[in-house]
Automatic annotation (TrEMBL), chains A, B:
Pathway: Amino-acid biosynthesis; L-histidine biosynthesis; L-histidine from 5-phospho-alpha-D-ribose 1-diphosphate: step 9/9
Record's function text: Catalyzes the sequential NAD-dependent oxidations of L-histidinol to L-histidinaldehyde and then to L-histidine.
Residues that coordinate or bind Zn(2+): 259, 262, 361, 420
Protein name: Histidinol dehydrogenase
Organism: Neoaquamicrobium sediminum
Enzyme type, top EC level: oxidoreductase
Presence of keyword NAD: yes
Amino acid sequence: MPLRLDRSATGFEADFAAFLATKREVSEDVDTVVRDIIARVREEGDAALIDYTRRFDRLDLSKTGIAVSEAEVDAAMAEVDADTLAALRFAHERITAHHARQMPQDDRYVDPVGVELGSRWTAVEAVGLYVPGGTASYPSSVLMNAVPARVAGVERIVMTVPSPDGQLNPLVLAAARLAGVSEIYRVGGAQAVAALAYGTETIAPVAKIVGPGNAYVAAAKRRVFGTVGIDMIAGPSEVLVIADGNNDPSWLAADLLAQAEHDAAAQSILITDDAGLADAVEAEVERQLARLPRGEMAAASWRDFGAIIIVADLADAVPLANRIAAEHLELAMDDAENYVEKIRNAGAVFLGRHTPEVIGDYVGGSNHVLPTARSARFSSGLSVLDFVKRTSLLKLGPEQLRLLAPAAIALARAENLDGHAASVAIRLNPES
Amino acid sequence: MPLRLDRSATGFEADFAAFLATKREVSEDVDTVVRDIIARVREEGDAALIDYTRRFDRLDLSKTGIAVSEAEVDAAMAEVDADTLAALRFAHERITAHHARQMPQDDRYVDPVGVELGSRWTAVEAVGLYVPGGTASYPSSVLMNAVPARVAGVERIVMTVPSPDGQLNPLVLAAARLAGVSEIYRVGGAQAVAALAYGTETIAPVAKIVGPGNAYVAAAKRRVFGTVGIDMIAGPSEVLVIADGNNDPSWLAADLLAQAEHDAAAQSILITDDAGLADAVEAEVERQLARLPRGEMAAASWRDFGAIIIVADLADAVPLANRIAAEHLELAMDDAENYVEKIRNAGAVFLGRHTPEVIGDYVGGSNHVLPTARSARFSSGLSVLDFVKRTSLLKLGPEQLRLLAPAAIALARAENLDGHAASVAIRLNPES
């Protein structure tokens, strides 16, 4: 049974605060292992990759090669059935079109006193894309990570993906081909992250690493951060559905379960002003769970982390939603358009009854890499901005320098940085 | 003596690679101490702040209060001399004008098939600004951190600053007042970071923490990351000057020393195609060092981390500069405008002989919080973007859902996420 809260009940605030504070992640202590793996890859390069892959993936890279060949990708493309490939292409086109709108504009201008200022955006030169192996090896995630990099103008997009027992998901290779991934290596885990950050004989280093992974991958990304950039460390996925009474309970139940089936630590929350609807949704969840292939996983998530919150009025849900700051927020109501204006913290909002969150996972066009665990309060989903960086430009002539110098010198002296003051003053009085 | 490299010498590549790999930071192992401090602040709140401040800052907060009062800030404003206050105001205006151009635009549109998509930017609700005490307590840094937050629309800007023996820098308080800081607390160190992240009776928690600090502050920021957002952990500052032969060596020497005086771990690098100029600059550095109040610091930095690289042609400096990816890059040459087009990795570029980097520290208008330690390869200086976050919006009607559904269902099934497929399918066939 999921948690059930009533906003009008005594003690709601304490219960809600405790709910918000619930940790959904088991933090495995893998840091020592990861430190050693990184050190060995830095020292031994390819040889370390070969050894770890033999041990962890039961695969001899000295026979297969570390790189996945173009011919292998060709074969994967041929192997994928036509409908799925068409769906991947459709998703790729929609994601590309949306992300093309995100490219930031350079800004170069002269201010009223003649100082030239500017902000210039350039692409990160090389990006590593980590793709998990096994059941979490999602072609949609390859598109969601590679497309913004490609749109940004990243020249080298380097994918690493473990191939346990030599198996690679042909759909993942197909997605990589569509998205313009430039190199693919069959390595995974902390060793792949180390190779991307520091390079080996075969893998040239990158400047930034993105993509999801298990506890070892996350720990490795944290460790190499600084040497390279990393994306956010994603936590378990979550959805918040805010629904009025005028909904088909089976639709809402399906949406809650789509989230819950990801992971036993995923979270599905329903807020409604209709207690009757809440009951109906709960019954529907049980009914649909029975026929869901990943029902056991979904049931655990719903039981341990699911929640239903009853409010007297949907307006009361706004502050709760802003505190939850959900990764995914569905507004299953008539006037979603006005309601969303009041929502401040959410990774992505799905407006109206005909926009299930799953559309955003695949073909909506927006990115499905979104801030989890309340981090939508301070961060954004993956976008083109994650693959570009800004350089400030400043240009003064002698006249502008004379104009700005007194204030710069005054502040430098106030901060006891006389060398700073001197570097300005010396240009005013070159003979000094 | 600084390192001296000649690009045409045998072994240059190995020497340059070793130079790039030089670590300039001593990583103090403070993590255990910091963990305990954070745990105690979470548990005991204000009482822990009072105890730590008594111990570390020799100040009794139970007498002074944790908050700095408006009257204290008024008094500080009155205490600052008129010229310095005018300089602060001048800087504040220029920084505000530049950052106002950085506010990203919302984007809402309907695509060719009628799907509504959008990117909506909202300000982070509350931001913590850490300001160091003692000699590193810079009013200019208060402006550089607070102004972009203010421009972004952050409602609560909460400043913490330690006051060793009860001393607060009046200029720091004045800068806070000018920049619109909403609350100021006289606490520092890991305990201040913990209070900002988790809150105490007096200090309400924030969603993001920015600002420089010592090893304890940096370790605390790393630890609370996830609960709140943080900015980059800044390393020692650095400047790269690329100069043709037609420069006054005393100007270049002054610029190199302005950087070197920051910190013994700061770094100043000169690349030139004129070995004679290099010699003259080196002699000038020695001459100016003698009269610099922070000469000992600057001398240590120049001796341990300074470098002069001779190239046959300034074009040869481009790939070196892009690998160095300096925080600050000065182009002391005639045609800086064309040269900068080839520069890809740099935090900020200062064009021409009349744009010393120090102008950017104070009054240029651009931000002086910039990526250090080669991180300009993958990250940007502080900007308004660091204080806003983007929410994706997606809205389909029944017709759009029918159009996108087949591809979404195909991909969901290909990923073995039948619950995902069901959440789309159930809307096509409600009676199922």
